[in-house]
Amino acid sequence: MWFFFIAFSAYAYQYQPVLESLSIIGISPGVENVIFTFNKINNYRFIMLSNNYWYIAVPQYTIHINQTPTPRLSVNDILVRDIRNETRIYIKMNDKYTYKYKPILSKNGKYLIVRIEKLFNNTSNKTAKPKTQISHKQTAKTVINLSKPSTKTPVIVIDPGHGGKDPGAIGIYNKEKNIVLDIAKRTAYYLKRKGYKVVLTRNKDTYPTLSDRSQLSNRVKANIFVSIHANYSVKDRKKAKGLEVYFLNTTSDKRAIRLAARENGISIQEVGDINKIILSLIQSAKIEKSKTLALDVYYKMLSYGKKIYAGYKGRGVKQAPFYVLVDTRCPSILIETAFINNPKDALYLKNPVFRKYLAIGIAKGIETYIHSHMKSKIRQ
Ligand SMILES: [Zn+2]
After folding, report:
1. How far is the CA of 220 from the centre of ligand 1 (A)?
2. β-pairing, 332-339 with 243-248?
3. Gap from CA of 20 to ligand 1 centroid (Å)
4. How much is the pLDDT for 376?
5. Ligand 1 mean position to 160 CA, how many Å?
6. How many A from CA of 367 to the centre of ligand 1?
7. Three-state secondary-structure class, residue 122
8. In this predicted model, which residue has the larger pLDDT, 211 or 52?
């Protein structure tokens, strides 16, 4: 059932918040976002009535809703009510699961995102009781904190993309999940030998969700996050080849949007929605550092890769809204090593010597970044 309210209260003459849209986006199999887009709100309350029933309240005013949202994914029902000087948007969830909620209000007051994580009934996976009410100041803080430069041994998280039930792109000789695991393990080996603390998000053929990966990185207080992938061209597998290194930002580049849709496991339309909210959520400091890290890794990978594969093409450092990079609090990049369905690139990706040199390139690039941008215990 959907109730539609257009009302003007006596108090609303100064300012009328408008809920412009409400969308429900699947981020990964375990994570969904409910995104409320307002013209602007200053405060809100997030209230859990039960684990499967919650609401957002915008006090004092009545909200004007332009668009009728349709329940989808784990959201079974949406209901809007005016109660005691506030408008409440009630969300009823599929009761097959238990959930963990995290509301985040963008700095400009435009986007209220409720991040919903499905917790499966697993006794070993006990989570803290969710708070019944979270003020937006508290939650905003958790998004904004960027890890401070430390004088301790840097912690580097290496994330081999996909895995387990998610094969990633299917190449001429191999699946993306296997190739990137091999490169990631080799990269970890070189970095560990240099004395860095290295954490792999997976070291075998398993599937951590995108949020598992970024949460692990925050838990171990990572200083650097590097996600490793292999590219795939739908349009022109003969011509499309080479290396791309991405950092998180919005993009209008159609190819980057298609790539982000594939890597995020969501539709192009949904990438558009994420694109819109990202700029208001991430800090410019993180973007700048990530860009520098991307450049350092890109140039080293290209020079080491070319030692084995003379025609290894550099396609540049680019930006795109990759979800695995949104939640990390440290400089983070995503590497598309080469095209797994390009005949030449695929042949080299199959070659362990080339993979070894790519790994050395990644490790050297990370080291370059650490030496020039972080106070580290480890000297060259
Ligand atoms: Zn991938």
Report:
1. 23
2. antiparallel
3. 33
4. 58
5. 9
6. 24
7. coil
8. 52
Sheet with 31-38, side-by-side order of all strands:
64-65, 18-28, 31-38, 111-119, 98-105
Cα-to-centroid distance, 176 and ligand 1 (Å): 7
What does the DSSP assignment read for 229-283? EEE--SS-TTT--SEEEEEE-----HHHHHHHHHHHTS-HHHHHHHHHHHHHHS-
What is the model's pLDDT at position 3?
43
Helices vs strands, H then E, count in the chain: 9, 15
Report the pLDDT value the prediction gives residue 85, as an integer from 0 to 100: 76
> pLDDT digits over 8-31, tens only?
444 444 566 777 778 888 777 778
Which domains, ranges and CATH numbers included, belong to the chain?
A: 10-121 (2.60.40.3470), 155-373 (3.40.630.40)
Q: What is the CA(169)–ligand 1 centre distance, in A? A: 7
- pLDDT for residue 119: 81
More confident residue, 127 or 334: 334
- For residue 221, count other CB atoms closer than 10 A to its CB: 14
CA 42 to ligand 1 center in whole angstroms: 38
Do residues 215 and 330 touch, judged by C-beta distance below 8 A? Answer: no
Q: How far is the CA of 245 from the centre of ligand 1 (A)?
A: 12
What's the predicted TM-score (pTM) here? 0.65
CA of 238 to the centre of ligand 1 (A): 19
* 334 Cα: distance to centroid of ligand 1 (angstroms): 9
Confidence of residue 145 (pLDDT cuts 50, 70, 90): very low
- Cα 44 to middle of ligand 1, angstroms: 37
- CA–centroid distance, 374 to ligand 1, in Å, is 29
Q: Which pLDDT belongs to residue 280?
A: 54
CA of 372 to the centre of ligand 1 (A): 29
